[in-house]
């Protein structure tokens, strides 16, 4: 019986070491699964934020377009009012509206139209820039989802590998421990069995 105590201690130590190896693999696997979940959540948050930013840019684009259309119409109204006011004043003053006066009025009308078109162009440019920003935000959101899915896949693979490695390490530890116990005490155990079952 005293010979069995070291064997029992060695087997118990082997079992404890094997369990520790297995547990470590499971903990690493759990950490990798949590990382995978975090990658998915972060990707979803990034996509949601990107979609929010895209919609905000689209709203700003629509507001910019509407404001430019309003400003253009107001510029034309002001120009028409000023031209009609000048014609009325010139007519009231008895000025002949042919020749130079009509050329001046025509020049002013042309300048007013250029101003209105400049307002339209600025509005269209700002609208285009904001719509481009909206598209870019959506692209970033899609990219975040793709990257998050890729990272989650990598982390899931790491989890699987860690769990498998922990199991293999535990099995290897058991085999090594049992082999060591057999090498150290196997001869004594065999001799004890021989004596136990010996026939006289």
Going by helix content, strand content and strand pairing, the class is mainly alpha
Helix content: over 70%
Average pLDDT score: 89
Global outline: rod-shaped
In words, what does this structure look like?
The protein is an all-alpha fold. It has one domain (4-194). It is built from 2 helices and no strands. The chain has helices spanning 4-92, 100-196. It is rod-shaped. The two termini are 23 Å apart. The model has no long low-confidence stretch (mean pLDDT 89). This is Phage protein. Residues 1-20 form the signal peptide. Keywords: Signal. It comes from Neoroseomonas oryzicola.
List keywords for this structure.
Phage protein; 2 helices; rod-shaped; signal; 200 residues; mainly alpha
Helices and strands, with pairings:
Elements: H1 4-92, H2 100-196
Put the structure in a nutshell.
The protein has 200 residues and is mostly helical.
């Amino acid at each position: 019986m005293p010979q069995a105590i070291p064997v029992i201690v060695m087997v118990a130590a082997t079992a404890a070491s094997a369990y520790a190896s297995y547990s470590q693999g499971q903990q690493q696997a759990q950490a990798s699964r949590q990382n995978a979940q975090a990658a998915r959540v972060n990707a979803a948050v990034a996509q949601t934020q990107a979609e929010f930013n895209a919609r905000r840019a689209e709203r700003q684009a629509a507001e910019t377009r509407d404001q430019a259309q309003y400003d253009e119409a107001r510029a034309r109204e002001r120009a028409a009012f000023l031209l009609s006011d000048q014609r009325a004043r010139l007519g009231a003053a008895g000025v002949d509206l042919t020749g130079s006066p009509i050329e001046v009025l025509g020049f002013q009308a042309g300048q007013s139209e250029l101003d209105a078109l400049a307002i339209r162009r600025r509005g269209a440019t700002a609208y285009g820039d904001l719509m481009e920003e909206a598209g870019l935000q959506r692209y970033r959101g899609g990219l975040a989802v793709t990257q998050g899915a890729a990272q989650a896949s990598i982390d899931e693979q790491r989890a699987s590998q860690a769990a498998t490695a922990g199991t293999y390490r535990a099995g290897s530890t058991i085999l090594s421990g049992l082999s060591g116990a057999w090498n150290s005490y196997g001869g004594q155990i065999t001799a004890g069995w021989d004596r136990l079952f010996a026939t006289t």
